[in-house]
Amino acid sequence: MSDKPKHFLDIADHSTAEIEAMLAHGKALKARRVKGQLGDYLPLLGKKIAVVFQQPSLRTRMSFDVGINELGAHVLMVSGDEIELGHRESIADTARVMSRYVDAIMIRMLSHHELLELAHYAEVPVINGLTKKSHPCQVMADVLTFEERKGSVRGRTIAWSGDSNNVLASWVHMAAKLDVTLKVATPEQLSPPKALVDWAAANKVDLRLTHDPDEAVDGADCVITDSWVSMGDGDKEYRHNLLRPYQVDQKLMARAKKDAIFMHCLPAKRGEEVAPEVIDGPQSAVWDEAENRLHAQKAVLVWALNAPK
Ligand code: CP
Ligand code: NVA
Fold first, then answer.
1. Using CA atoms, how far apart are residues 139 and 19, in angstroms rounded to an integer?
2. Is 50 exceeded by the pLDDT of residue 1?
């Protein structure tokens, strides 16, 4: 294969136009599905796509499986353990071999460095299904969800209360592409890493960091949180102690705009990062958010494989 594969590794790597085109296509695909008009659009017919998980997943696994099927392609679902990813042979050799069998690779692995290595040696597009550093597919779905409820995300304020993690990093990248104001409250010890803050500054992101959740949420259009312990985090008790004041409860949510929405990538722990009355309340958009993984990722796949829209 001579052309460079079109990877989807980080939102940061893409132009605003590319991101916007994928989001628009994701919305169109959702509308088509709602109308029951999927049967006449099979842009990936005959393609084979590997979906590899080194870590657990419900949403990413099912939404890619269903999405790939709906686009007409065949899924090869593989666990990292089955192929002893990174142990039985080098990541580079794994990439070279997989590229001879499949047309694209979607992978979840903790090491972002290894993801980049895989992408470097792959001759087919590689899609990031979450690393310790970022979760770009999630934030594509988040924007789709925000926009279907509240219109364009441009110029809007998104608040984050909790741990600084992979989902937040992808939101920082997205904020640069779509001119979002991002107000982030974390404990000092769990602040965003310097590299991410420097990236935000270099890319003119309106990123406002605080340790006070009230300050972050005041006047926001959307409030987001995520689990206090992400995959690969070992220090559970330490994190719980630090993050307890960052729970999104009704009192915190009330500081946002009256019509603000609540999002969470899930899985959620009610009573920890979010109070049940918020996640199960009228402002919560979490089930649409989970569904929208499907539509957003189908658009990413069509883009990556240069398939017709
Ligand atoms: N939000 C998300 O990526 O969920 P899974 O870990 O279940 O895939
Ligand atoms: N931040 C979470 C997201 C899970 C989808 C994690 O990395 O575990």
1. 11
2. no
